[in-house]
């Protein structure tokens, strides 16, 4: 019981959303990140799926609460309501599918308008193990990301390459923003909360949060 | 944010009591024989509906039949799957150690009892612990195993794909939506034959009045989430059900095994009410674990979005139909009312929000007419941005031309068409003998009494002409005044919207009445005019304001909104509706007879067209002749 409590403690809770075209590999990416395994024969998402994991970034425990949305165009009006308060957004496209890359702009616009204005956004080119079928080059995608002032990484949910890096990278950016005072972690709307709220009377969380303030 | 205690909900108490006493399907059942009286099985398909229940009935009896080999008497759920022995101490539900121990003890006997063909795979003796556990779970609840296995055997991906493709072709407004494959899969399993599955899916969607669950914008789904949320909030809960409604509603409950089939039974029998009840019961089932803390969203997520494991079907259904769950005040009509309101709320918020307006634009336009509200029209005007503005007739003309072309196609197909009037939805009268020969076989019966339509007549260019035609339409709607007789003065509804001959008021007022936004007498209106199958607020029987349509109801069932949207003809749509068990919509619809004293209803004398046009309607047109005469007498 004690160990469970220990495990449950975290300093911040970040809400991430994963968006992108259908079939880009969003659910597999999430599954690979949470379970470190590739999900064979995964069925498409209806509405939204959840996952959460605690990672260590910059000496802090950060709980990521990841919402994996349905990618089909039809669900867009429903998934819009899931964006609210997301601190980070992962826009996933499929490097073997040019269309999914072309829709990147739409997703970016959605994320910027519906989540917070200062949401940290990363573009993820998935399926980078299928090099022979590549339709989007690394260079052009990274250039596009630079132009739009977002992060960029290529991953493979099948092999697990770069999956963890994506989440850590975004979490680090958000953490930096918190420490610079750009995001107030105590506001619920920001999509990040401090762990002390949740843990309640536990002194650990309090101590952690006070450490944040002194920075 | 209100935080509800779980135990506050009366439903929770009922469920807790059930869980204490009812036989759980796992080996943890406490007393095999003791069953509370309310867990008795609901009849799967009540026989109250007559012949119109073909597809659902087969859906309901299909799995029963297939499973009857195992338990001929009452289905597998009426007895605990694994009767507890006297020696084994009953362990708590969810106690893994106890389960494993008990099951291990009984495994040998079970094997001996069951016929060899039932045992599809032996339990893996070696291998990874996870797989073994999974196999063990399947063994413990064989119906789950059988459904999944059956599906794998019966339903190859190609088969499912072809079914879905045919459904999408028949329902262009829905197309393919993720989650329809679940419906299709279950129907393939249950019906067996593929050719009926698309029709059954269409019927199911129509039964739930849930076309807008799947169509662009998913307005109805969001509206239903609102309704569900209100229902939860009335029970001191605060939770955003939009997280779970896609999973529960779109695929009609992502629960597993026997419980799923039972839930479908209930939905087929009771329609949308059952869907809501089961949704609430699924919330209630998770009650004990103190959910519903708005900040602990991940807890909620873990509770709701993990696959709903082995839900005990008896518990689920008994909880769903327990009287404390929904309360006595909420029945089908109340639900429909709430859904209608929520839908109009959603659509108005869509058109108001800056991002949502863009999103909803495509979804909105077909509904502009049905909702008929001023702000929607204004929104349309703004969208166009031009000085000309949105004209009400524009869309109706578009629809009219669409129908025209459709009818022409159909007429060409039947190849025996003499005049376009023959196929004009049966509302027009031709000379009887000639028309009988000329009428296409599929056309609805014609009715005597109105003038023949000019062949090749097109819809008029502007919205003006149809109400300028003398006598057939009334310029100003006086319905508001009639609805509230206390109000004196000129008619307050100055709407220029189309006149519904059947309802005796303008379409805007029809929509207002149907949505209950105005007038204390909407209830009576609702009794006569059920909302149409697509869930939109339109009133059935409304005439589209294209010219050439008779202003009087002809007695034939008109094309409803759903019919328009699905591209069906009225007859096809009516046939589909007749297959529905809900006869209230399908058959009991009678166009209202016009009141006898109102001479405005009488067909106009066959006057030359020039004369008819010259008769410019005044605001008093909708007073009857007697009324006018009396007034004149009084004045003199």
Architecture overview:
In chain A, a hairpin with a 2-residue loop joins strand 2 and strand 3. With 215 residues, chain A is an alpha/beta fold. Chain A has 9 helices and 7 strands; from the N terminus they run αβαββαβααβαβαβαα. Chain B has 636 residues and is mainly alpha-helical. Chain B is built from 30 helices and 2 strands. In chain B, strands 1-2 form a two-stranded antiparallel sheet. In chain B, a hairpin with a 4-residue loop joins strand 1 and strand 2. The N and C termini of chain B lie far apart (68 Å). The interface between A and B is medium-sized, with 27 and 33 residues.
pLDDT < 50 runs, ≥5 residues of chain B = 1-15, 17-111, 140-146, 288-295, 354-381, 384-400, 416-492, 517-566, 580-590, 594-602, 611-622
The general outline of chain B is extended
Q: Structural class of the secondary elements of chain A?
A: alpha/beta
Q: Beta-sheet strand percentage of chain B?
A: under 5%
What is the 3D form of chain A? globular
Helical content class of chain A = 25-40%
Helical segment count of chain B: 30
Q: Biggest β-sheet of chain A: count, sense, barrel?
A: 7 strands, mixed
Pair with the biggest interface: A-B, 27 and 33 residues
Assembly state (oligomeric): heterodimer
